[in-house]
Amino acid sequence: MLVNGVFADAVKANDRGLMYGDGVFRTLLVRKGVPQHWDRHYRRLSLDCERIGISPPAMETLTEELLRLAKGDCVAKIVVTRGAGERGYLPDASVEPTRIISKNPIPDHRILNEVNARFCDLRLSHQPRLAGIKHLNRLENVLARMEWRDPAIAEGLLLDINDHVIEGTMSSLFLYHEGCLIAPDLASCGVEGVQRERVIEYSMASNTPLQIRRFGQDELLKAEEVFLVNSVIGLWQIVSIGERRWEKGGFCGELRKWLQ
Amino acid sequence: MLVNGVFADAVKANDRGLMYGDGVFRTLLVRKGVPQHWDRHYRRLSLDCERIGISPPAMETLTEELLRLAKGDCVAKIVVTRGAGERGYLPDASVEPTRIISKNPIPDHRILNEVNARFCDLRLSHQPRLAGIKHLNRLENVLARMEWRDPAIAEGLLLDINDHVIEGTMSSLFLYHEGCLIAPDLASCGVEGVQRERVIEYSMASNTPLQIRRFGQDELLKAEEVFLVNSVIGLWQIVSIGERRWEKGGFCGELRKWLQ
Questions:
Q1: CA-based, 20 to 30 A from B106: which of A181, B37, B161, B242?
Q2: Are B80 and B167 contained in the same domain?
Q3: Cβ of A26 under 8 Å from any chain B Cβ?
Q4: By the CB < 8 Å criterion, does A75 face chain B?
């Protein structure tokens, strides 16, 4: 792990990332020492920093640290916090952001192509000021993920307080139905992932009509194909939720190839 | 600072408190080495732990650490996180909570009795699963507190997404009107503070009728007295919000004496 460019395994206990979740992060795949889609991850990370008023670290700094740490095949996680400071919500004008880059093993579930999913009970709150940002206030995800321990279920789907489907606990969600790609509207909650961005790009590259809009559980269960993406897992097609079963889908197969 | 009972100034960089804001905290006043209302703070802290599925540290452990660290007059802050662990929202079954106790100077603003306040633009989201808990997901408070830097304004008032008044960025709020004490309903958002609990107790001890319910900006501005409390500041009466001015109030004076 690198903390502000130095090999370390600890951060200051008064870091605002710890005290208030005052920071952002991104997780990405590294293959043979090459961080995948790093330019996109950096762009999202720095946009997220700006949205909460943190000066984003320079791309060169993060690139150098990432390449120094993340050799071989691994999952890299980059956390940027507002920095360490005195107690109190107002950050000191002189506070300097903290960079934490960690190297993690590639999870076993990465090899999956088809998975079982469930709907979570927890409902995501609406906070337009934070919607889309991959910030460190992730208690909703933690509580949702704690709803099940059955290893046969790979992911839980999150609805918002109006019962619209938003995402998985750690992944972005899409429907494919009647030749059309449908992505949840993230104006009120949810995370704008890099892999979601790439799927949206695929819709353009492949001339697949795209709708970004609200939809509920019923529409999801009626869709021809339902799938999850993130930068580590690639694409997981959902093949069961409760009693509902899906066959392996042609769209998912094509899109997975394109994403790889 | 004590981390798990040992003098230290750092925590593991993979602590879930930092990674996800996966933890809770309480802040309290220590006078001549005596933590004020420690039994109440401990009760709230352990209830908060239980609500998010963290085993609360034993009272004897925290008491011993608090007394060891917090000599003289100071502000003590106790953070309990779910502990350090692997990447991923699902906590490992073996994860052990982290205890962080810090000693901080008493802020200068503690001596204030009357203050100027403002309404914040940020609206608190509704999350009944987290409402009332003093958890580490505090980006809303940080962003709200960053809305102003004028030192003449001591506190910002937070409304929720339905424009009901909930609290200050770091304090609980009450109205006093026509012989009645009015406290915001915290079923959907806000923090249940120990000092709020004590004010509610005062309403019973003094036979002051109490209403816990929703109200908006208009009702607040019409109230005879409006005040903020927390364990560090005691009681601040609001004497101005924009053009609205209040005189020093009799109810606030009595209550302040009782709280001390």
A1: B242
A2: no
A3: no
A4: yes
